[in-house]
Amino acid sequence: MSNQKHLAGREKVTVAIVQRPPMYMDKNASIDIACESIIEAGRNDAELVAFSEAWVSGYPFWTEGWEIEISEWGDMRELWQDNGIIVPSRDTDRLAAAAREGNTHAVIGFNEMDERPNVGTLYNSLLFIDRRGSILGTHRKLTPTFSERTFWGQGGSVDLKVFDTDIGRIGGLICGEHWMPLVKAAISMQGQDFHIAAWPGALGYDTTVNDSEPLEKRGTSPVHTTGRQTACDANAFCLNACGLYSKDKISDKFPNPDKLHMYPEGGSTIFGPSGQYLSGPDYNEGIIYAVCEASAIKKAKGILDVLGHYSRPDCFHFEILASNRQNILLAPEYGWREARESQKPHDINNRKINDIAAKYEIDAKVLGKAVDEIVNTRD
């Protein structure tokens, strides 16, 4: 009898990364390209399609600061706002329709606009869509990196999600989150068959190497090293989606294209659950494919089950602190839950629950759920 735990019982799944430039700061044209690419990948038997970070409709490649007059970048910020996407909306409906037509799951990086009517904050997010065209959810980057903090707000622990699908469990993180050990643990411990690692490009910052050399000659990019390690940490397939941009595809509305430093040149790679290269690094425009076999996960876990007994759960306890996306009190008429003191994690750890369950001969899982329900619903 085959093991049904991996790839939802499938023997193999074809996956794809779209490595094509968006129409920079033109979300309608970018969504057109995304929809065409999703459908094309689906027709080529891909059942999971991934895009790079902030693909719709572009990473903020310009500089702002007190040394620059606001008049030089204020118009860019206006266009930035116009290109934000609310979930759900007509924009997401178009992407969902493409996933349905292509009969494939899709994960795409985008600039997400906060849906509250009084807020204009954007987030660096991933949108997860299933093959039926249903939105599974979003992941907002927890901590924007460097100058990103002037552009994007922060996500919360509610954004650490893994989604069940008919091809297996799909999770994802964005760029610098892959250097945050506890964030990676929070996703990996939920169990993934596929991990989407979204990057603006194949970053390289080895100061001993001449930057005029093309990316493929710069040695191992830290993006590739980290993506490969992520696959090993999760015993999962990692789709390392790296951005590719073209100066020929910049919106006519963008006020100062000469201010853009659009460095990404691709470099997307697909890794197996033991860190093996299945495809790439690829620096060409197009769609990158790989066949992912359940047997590879079984072998990886059979040799080194990093999330099972090898993780020594009897010695270590991992807990995700509860937080909603805003961490503030929100008016009920906006349809948001209030942030309560009861959302803070209770101080009853698993060992205490196990001890009490053993003493009174109660199922520990049932007792744990009861404690969580009591704590999280009290006024």
Task: Give structural notes.
The protein folds into two domains: 7-306, Carbon-nitrogen hydrolase (Nitrilase/N-carbamoyl-D-aminoacid amidohydrolase, 4-Layer Sandwich); 312-379, no CATH class. The protein has eight helices and twelve strands. The protein starts with 11 loop residues before the first strand and ends with a helix. Residues 327-347 have low confidence and may be disordered. The protein is an alpha/beta fold and 379 residues long. It has helices at residues 27-43, 74-82, 90-102, 181-188, 222-234, 294-303, 350-359, 364-377; strands spanning 12-19, 48-50, 105-113, 122-129, 135-140, 162-165, 168-174, 194-199, 237-242, 268-271, 277-282, 286-293. The protein is globular. Helix 1 runs parallel beside helix 3. It is 25% helix and 20% strand. Strands 5-4-3-2-1-12 form a six-stranded mixed sheet.
Q: State the domain count.
A: 2
**What fraction of the residues are assigned to beta strands by DSSP?**
15-25%
Proportion of residues in helical segments: 10-25%
SS class: alpha/beta
Order of helices and strands: EHEHHEEEEEHEHEEEEHHH
Q: Enumerate how many helices there are, as a single number.
A: 8
Number of E-type strands: 12
Topology:
Layout (H helix, E strand, L loop, with lengths): L11 E8 L7 H17 L4 E3 L23 H9 L7 H13 L2 E9 L8 E8 L5 E6 L21 E4 L2 E7 L6 H8 L5 E6 L22 H13 L2 E6 L25 E4 L5 E6 L3 E8 H10 L46 H10 L4 H14 L2
Parallel strand pairs: 1-2, 2-3, 7-8, 8-9
Antiparallel strand pairs: 1-12, 3-4, 4-5, 6-7, 9-10, 10-11
